[in-house]
């Protein structure tokens, strides 16, 4: 990553960096968006991504993106990275999420078994200008607000609240010691204390129900949902094209070779874990695996689930092996520090997230098809829950924007220079207003790109499969 902290600048010198960046790139410069003259065709960019994906799954990706402009936005991180690359850059770098839209924040279990709120998707993580993440987050609220039917003034208010939360949180982190920044986090208890007085009883009940579901969402729950007993052994239930057991993806004479290959991958993965956690995973034996379609933007990348059992069938562990392709930011910001994109994702997550999965690791290996690919590995479910954005009221979305803004600032403060960034942002609302304006303009662009995909499907240029 950046290694700027190794310079050990004084507080005044770090503040001066922020003010110098502000002189070079005024905060008002972020308010403008218009497509540049030779902007790439959005469908061409999506098709470029499709070239490295499983061809039979790409139509599912397009089908999911076509549900609404909001779901399109979720799958269009590459398009937005291309657009951000043509805009102003502050030069104040941090570790970016790379896809910091509002649905990539959520709840999960920390190692001490508290439920915490943080960023939870790092496929596109990469070092870069802090404002790129802020703009993606702000635009996601503008797009989601349209999806919910909020008028322009309400959307601008929601987006401004989120950006203001980022700015004021960064100012707070700039005044903290390094360890205080590192250990800052939002727990369920923090959120209840801060927001329950501002939302309806119905919304509170729904929130509590979602958290209860999250607490029950673990490997045992995944095991019960995804497997059945066959001849006394757990086997993943086939549900093509979304869940396809690996035994159905290889020739009839390949099962033994496949079994050996999976065990080799597990051995390689365990080597990336700290010794105590490696010992824990070694207590589990492999029983079955499958290809599983996940997400919106990720559809078509190779994602697998692997079922292991420990003491007995009541002690399962379900891992997800997810392909890590180059970040969508890499073509515009250059290659990062890691040879393995799996390691890039893991190190970015550990740096940005409040408390990472204790079993997160990575592998780089040559598949049965002879192609070398990178993967990161994590528990499939670890008390995970996401916000039900499609049902948000205006007041709830406003509160959620504040949560996301604070959370993104904390992630950036851990990996970048909070003093310089806070100095750039300042104490007034200039940056908030500029980003809110930009977000609305970019939401217009997102709708034009969504229409372009619709047209491409209508003319047969690309194929979309809906219902998955």
Brief summary of the model shown:
Helices cover 48% and strands 15% of the residues.
Features:
about 475 residues, 2 domains, alpha+beta, 18 helices
Please explain how this structure is put together.
There is one protein chain. The chain has a six-stranded antiparallel sheet. A four-stranded antiparallel sheet has the order 5-3-2-14. 47% of the residues are buried. It has helices at 11-24, 42-50, 58-65, 69-74, 77-84, 130-147, 152-174, 178-183, 188-195, 201-216, 219-226, 255-270, 275-282, 330-333, 341-352, 394-415, 418-425, 430-458; strands spanning 93-96, 105-109, 115-119, 126-129, 186-187, 227-230, 233-236, 243-245, 285-292, 303-309, 316-323, 361-366, 372-379, 385-386. The longest helix has 29 residues, at 430-458. It folds into two domains: 4-214 and 390-458, no CATH class; 219-379, no CATH class. The chain has 18 helices and 14 strands. The chain starts with 10 loop residues before the first helix and ends in a 10-residue tail after the last helix. The mean pLDDT is 93. With 468 residues, the protein is α+β, with helices and mostly antiparallel strands.
């Amino acid at each position: 990553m950046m290694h700027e902290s190794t310079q050990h600048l004084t507080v005044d010198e770090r503040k001066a960096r922020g003010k110098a960046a502000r002189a070079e790139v005024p905060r008002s410069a972020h308010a403008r968006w218009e497509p540049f003259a030779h902007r790439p065709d959005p469908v061409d960019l999506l098709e470029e991504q499709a070239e490295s994906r499983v061809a039979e799954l790409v139509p599912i990706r397009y089908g999911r993106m076509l549900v609404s402009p909001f779901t399109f936005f979720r799958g269009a991180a590459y398009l937005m990275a291309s657009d951000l690359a043509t805009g102003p850059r502050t030069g104040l770098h941090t570790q970016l999420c790379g896809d910091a839209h509002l649905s990539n924040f959520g709840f999960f279990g920390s190692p001490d078994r508290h439920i915490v709120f943080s960023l939870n998707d790092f496929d596109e993580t990469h070092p870069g200008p802090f404002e790129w993440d802020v703009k993606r987050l702000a635009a996601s609220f503008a797009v989601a607000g349209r999806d919910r039917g909020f008028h322009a003034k309400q959307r601008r208010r929601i987006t401004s609240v989120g950006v203001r939360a980022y700015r004021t949180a960064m100012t707070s982190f700039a005044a903290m010691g390094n360890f205080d920044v590192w250990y800052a986090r939002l727990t369920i208890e923090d959120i209840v204390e801060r927001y329950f007085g501002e939302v309806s009883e119905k919304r509170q009940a729904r929130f509590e129900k979602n958290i209860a579901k999250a607490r029950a969402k673990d490997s045992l729950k995944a095991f019960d949902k995804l497997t059945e007993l066959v001849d006394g052994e757990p086997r993943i239930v086939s549900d093509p094209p979304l869940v396809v057991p690996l035994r159905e993806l290889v020739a009839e004479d390949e099962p033994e070779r496949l079994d050996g290959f999976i065990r080799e991958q597990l051995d390689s993965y365990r080597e990336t874990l700290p010794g105590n956690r490696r010992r824990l995973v070694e207590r589990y034996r492999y029983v079955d695996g499958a290809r599983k379609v996940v997400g919106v933007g990720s559809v078509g990348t190779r994602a697998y689930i692997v079922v292991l059992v420990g003491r007995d069938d009541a002690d399962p562990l379900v891992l997800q092996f997810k392909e890590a392709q180059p970040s969508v930011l890499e073509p515009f910001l250059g290659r990062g520090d890691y040879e393995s994109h799996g390691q890039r994702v893991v190190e970015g997550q550990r740096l940005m997230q409040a408390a990472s999965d204790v079993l997160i690791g990575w592998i780089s290996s040559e598949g049965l098809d002879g192609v070398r690919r990178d993967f990161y590995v994590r528990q499939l479910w670890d008390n995970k829950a996401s916000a039900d954005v499609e049902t948000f009221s205006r007041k709830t979305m406003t509160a959620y924007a504040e949560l996301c803004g604070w959370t993104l600032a904390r992630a950036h403060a851990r990996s970048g220079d909070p003093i310089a960034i806070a100095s750039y942002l300042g104490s007034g609302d200039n940056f908030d207003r500029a980003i809110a304006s930009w977000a609305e303009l970019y939401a217009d662009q997102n709708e034009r790109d969504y229409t372009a995909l619709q047209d491409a499907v209508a003319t047969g240029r690309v194929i979309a499969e809906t219902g998955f």
